[in-house]
């Protein structure tokens, strides 16, 4: 059970809503990590830019990057 409640799009400020909408367009969902970061919009904004840069730049396919994230989480027995 989460200690900090992930926020819904209806509970966040307008800038955070734009980030949530970008996730919905790109992924079809809003990852819980970002829903939780929305309690601190400045952290959400920074984390989103960092996440987007990692996934959308470089020569490694985005699907492989996602699979690596899932596998590392599994190896560390973490929920992804």
From TrEMBL:
A Gene Ontology molecular function term of the record: peroxidase activity
Keywords, alphabetical: Oxidoreductase, Peroxidase
InterPro entries (UniProt xref): AhpD-like
Protein name: Alkylhydroperoxidase AhpD family core domain-containing protein
Protein species of origin: Geosporobacter subterraneus DSM 17957
Phylogenetic classification of the source organism: Bacteria, Bacillati, Bacillota, Clostridia, Peptostreptococcales
């Amino acid at each position: 059970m989460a200690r900090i409640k992930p926020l819904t799009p209806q509970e966040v400020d307008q800038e955070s809503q734009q980030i949530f909408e970008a996730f919905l367009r790109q992924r079809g969902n809003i990852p819980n990590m970002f829903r939780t970061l929305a309690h601190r919009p400045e952290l959400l904004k920074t984390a989103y830019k960092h996440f987007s840069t990692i996934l959308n730049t470089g020569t490694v396919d985005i699907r492989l990057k996602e699979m690596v994230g899932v596998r590392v989480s599994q190896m560390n027995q973490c929920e992804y």
